[in-house]
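Reviewers of the previous submission asked for a worked example of the structure-prediction workflow described in the proposal, so we include one complete record here. The input consisted solely of the amino acid sequence. No template or homolog information was supplied to the procedure at any stage.
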Amino acid sequence: MKRRDFLALGATAFAATARPVRAAQSRVVCVGGAITECVYALGMERVIVGADTTSLYPPVAQRLPRVGYQRALSAEGLLSLAPDLILASDDAGPPAVVTQIKGAGIRWITLPAAHTPAAPADKLRAIGAALGQAERATVRIRQYETEWQRTATQIAGLPGRPRAVFVMAHGGPVLNLAGRGTAADAMLALAACDNALDFEGYKTISAEALSAAAPEVVVTTQQSVDGLGGPDALLSRPGLADTPAAKARRVCTFDGLFLLGFGPRLPQAVARLAQRTRGQA
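From that input alone, the workflow returned the following structure tokens.
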């Protein structure tokens, strides 16, 4: 991927128009794990006064005061931290809370969201602009671009295209499968894997349809595996039990934020996914 691919026009426009805060005086709440990770990556964690429950990396971020889950925020919880800036993912809500916070005179910035190699750079650039730290962002983006180029080169030399499915089961025993237009599907493509499923978004499908997809490898999150009772329990589920993946016992588990966050660790996540789906790590 060429360097110019990282110069997304939307992020550039954001950086040009965003009104920076004075970092020394700002009180920032981060809503979205990748956003919190980006602020830490810029060395600006001192401005964070709170974060949502998806903000798990770096581990020290787990000590921050919590404002709830990003899609189920409360105005009271946010206002109690007296922020002057909220950096949020486009999943943040509900909309009524966003409107209430803006109505209280607090700046709310929704960060660019995309499932592409340019996404982490766009986030870093936008956050740098919002915090008045454009130079820091530029330095960190250059580091990220170097890391991504290294990963892209490694993947270009890997053999084959494993046929994979991504399974999520955070909310109980039901298996949600990732189709097109999801972060998981984008990760499979970046890791030179083929998604065995051809539909849009996340869906539950019949055991027959899952079996017919014949995945060679199952990719999932550690949270899902733990919730289901371990890899054996996952592979024994109807639809998966008679697939090539189950017969070869090929399950690749990852931390959810690491795999799907599209934050600064994207090069490492893609490289690890590409290797593990090929049995190399």
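The chain is about 40% helix and 15% strand. We consider this example representative of the routine output the project will generate in years two and three.
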